[in-house]
Amino acid sequence: MQWAERANELYLFITMKNIPIPAEIHQLTANGNPDEVWGKAVDIVRHINPAYDFTLAHKAFSDVLRIFCGDYPGYCAIKTPYHNLHHTMDVFLCAVRLSHGVHISGTPLTDHEITWIMLATLMHDIGYAQRLDEDCGSGAQHTLTHVGRGIKFMQHYLLEHDFPSGFAAPIEYLMNSTNPALDFDAIDFPDKRTRLLAQIVGSADIVGQMADRSYLEKLLFLYLEFQEARFGNYASLHDLLCQTKHFYDVTREKKLDGKFEGIYKKLSFHFNDYMGMENNYYVESIEKNIAYLAKVISLDEAEFLTMLKRGGIVEKSHTLV
Known about the structure:
By secondary structure, the protein is mainly alpha-helical.
């Protein structure tokens, strides 16, 4: 009885202090419902500018959903198991949150810049989509070229749907920040401002996906994509998992804290404003994933899959194989 009373007192304390409970924190990266993601994004952008016009962003959001679902003229549904709609929603919402954090930290963003960031993250992996006349494989065969394909789609899409003529150029720079085959420093940005916006998008692409609570399980899907694309030097799935810790360490040092200049840290401004806590919940989630990963890879190849239980992903990956 004493334990129950103590737990109730703690809950009341947390509630009174507006401290987020674990369930609320878990929901931050639960982006499986696009309608909920859009609702969260709208609320966050209204914190930046209550008068923001969502017409263009919502048009692109709706059409991206249609492409992923196979309801867009001339295109098949996107079938890549890792770079799927959930992944795009992860990156999109992380970018919106980061934009808010940057904005209230002392670097105000314009409405156009917010729109560019949203469109760039929505379309950053649209290059995995295949036209009806190229419906073979899952689309993962375009791993090394998907960003370029996506940029071409974006340019045609904006022109076809009468978006402002000046949108395509900055969005191309932002999309290129997510290209793993392109050195960020080799991108010839027209100015420091465009580089800043690209750092937001590039950071969101990394942080948004790695903070997913099912990230480790979804690496099984990523391994299947890499196999189809004949990309990477991974002897097995276990080998990919073993190399993921090193990947994160290098990515955080060289990209997140290096080329992207630690802009992901501005997420703490967003969470402080939204949840009353200066925590960077994305980074905390990533570090929990990496800590758990150490336990997974400590097991041999016959046992490690027993540690990956979320979302039924292990079973789904077997059916894909």
